[in-house]
Amino acid sequence: MIIGVPKEVKDQETRVGLVPGGAQALTEAGHQVLVQAGAGAHSSLPDAEYAHAGAEIVSTADEVWRRAELVVKVKEPQSSEYGFLRPGLMLFTYLHLAPLPELTDRLLTAKVNAVAYETIRESDNSLPLLIPMSEVAGRMSVQVGAQYLEAPNGGRGILLGGVPGVAPANVVILGGGIVGHNAARMACGLGAHVTIIDKNLDRLRTLDDIYNSQIVTLASNAWTIREVLKHADLVVGAVLIPGASAPKLVRRDMIRMMKPGAVVVDVAIDQGGCFETSHATTHTDPTYFVDHVLHYCVSNMPAAVPHTSTFALTNATFPYLLQLANKGLERACEENLAIREGVNTYLGSVTYPAVAESQGKAWKELSAVM
Q1: Which CATH number, 3.90.950.10, 3.50.50.60, 3.40.50.720, 2.30.110.10, labels domain 131-304?
Q2: Domain map of the chain by residue range?
Q3: Of 198, 156, 192, nearest to 173 (Cα)?
Q4: Could you report the per-residue pLDDT of 105-154, keeping only the tens digit for each?
Q5: How far apart are CA 271 and CA 95, in angstroms?
Q6: What one-character DSSP code corresponds to residue 281?
Q7: With contact defined as beta carbons under 8 Å apart, do 234 and 174 qualify?
Q8: 322-334 average pLDDT score
Q9: In 3-state terms, what secondary structure has residue 39?
Q10: Conformational region of residue 162, where left means phi above 0, alpha means psi within -120 to 50, and beta covers everything else
C-alpha cells in the first residue's frame, strides 16, 4: 500500500502523523511511504531521517494526496485540502466531526473512508488514541492557564501556587477523565487549590484516593458548577462524550458571575466546547474576553509542544496504522473491532452514530455498507 504523510496546514499545527521509525517499519513490511518535504521539521524530524528510513520525500502536498492510498495526518482536513479528497481514499487522523458539518459533507460527497483517531475504542472502553493527547492537553491547560492569569496577559495577576501568607489560586476542573486527571496533577504540583467536578461518583472516589484527599471532589450539577465558578480563578473544561458534541456545562450567565480576569481553558473545544461562550481559537490568536473573563480555546493545543506530542501520538497510532496498511480497511475492521469503531464515514455514508446525531444526519451500520 502507498501511505502518504502530508505537511499539516492548520494554523500553527507543528505535529506530524508519522515518525521515521514508523516509516522504516512500513517500508520493511513492503509498503511505500511518501512524506511531504518539511512535514516533520517542527517536530525536530528532518527529511534526511525519513529518507534514511526508506521514505520517498516529495515536494508538494498535491503529490502526496494524489499518489497515496492511505493518508495519515494529525488534524482534520482544512478547507485548502478539500480538493484532495477523492473516492476510495482512506484517511487516518483526528477528525472531531461532530461540530464540523461542512467537513462531514465533503467527506461524504468525496466518498472518503475516514477513520478517526478519537473514536477507536478497545474492548475495555478505553480510547487509546485520545489518551496521549489528552495527557498533553491536560498538563498544558494548567501551564497555559497559569500564564494567562498573569496581569500582562489579561489575567487577575495571581500566582497559581501563591506564596506564604497569600492564598493560592482556585482551580476548577470540569471532568475527571484523562484530561482532568492530568490537569489536576499539574495544578496540585504547582500548589493550587484544586476542585474536580464529575458526574461519575466512582471516578470521584478514585481521584480522591489518588490525591489522598488533597483535592476537593464534587458531584456535577448546574447549581454546584455555578457556585464553584464564582470563586474560581482558573477553570479547565475537560468533558468528553466520544465522537459527539461536548455538553455546554457552563452557561453565559455563569461566566458573567465569575471574577474579572479569571481564565477558562476549554480543552473540549475540538468537540464544540463545554462553555456556552466558547469558540475555537488558534495559536496565532489564542484568547478573547467574554464578560471580562479570558477564554483560551485553541483546538490543537498539543501542537505547541510538537516533539513531545508527535512521539506520544505516533506511539499510540502506529500499531493501528500498520494493521490498516497490511490488511486494508475492510479486513482490518473484520479482525479488529476497535478499528471498526473508528470508521466515521464510508463510501458516502456516516457510520458513527454520535456524529450523525450531532448533525441531524442519517447513519448506517458499517456492516450494512461495507
Answers
A1: 3.40.50.720
A2: 2-127+306-369, 131-304
A3: 198
A4: 999 999 999 999 999 999 999 999 999 999 999 999 999 999 999 999 99
A5: 10
A6: B
A7: no
A8: 98
A9: coil
A10: left
Instruction: Report how far residue 164's alpha carbon sits from residue 168's, in angstroms, rounded to the nearest whole number.
Output: 9
- Fill in the amino acid letter for 216: V
pLDDT at 41: 97
What span, in angstroms and rounded, lies between the C-alpha atoms of 269 and 325?
Answer: 31
**Cα–Cα distance for residue pair 201/179, rounded to 1 Å:** 17
User: For cell 487522523, what's the residue?
Assistant: 93
Residue 279 near residue 287, CB atoms below 8 Å = no
Tell me: domain 2-127+306-369, CATH 3.40.50.620, correct? no
The C-alpha torsion from 128 through 185 and 183 to 303, rounded to 10°, is -60
What number of helices (H) and strands (E) belong to the chain?
13, 15
The one-letter amino acid code at 131 reads I
Residue 194 CA to residue 91 CA, distance in Å, equals 40
Catalytic positions, written as ranges:
96, 270
| Residue 295, pLDDT score | 98
CA distance 290 to 122: 39
Q: Where are the beta strands (DSSP E) in the chain?
A: 2-5, 32-36, 56-58, 70-72, 90-93, 113-116, 170-174, 193-198, 216-219, 234-237, 263-266, 287-290, 293-296, 343-346, 349-350
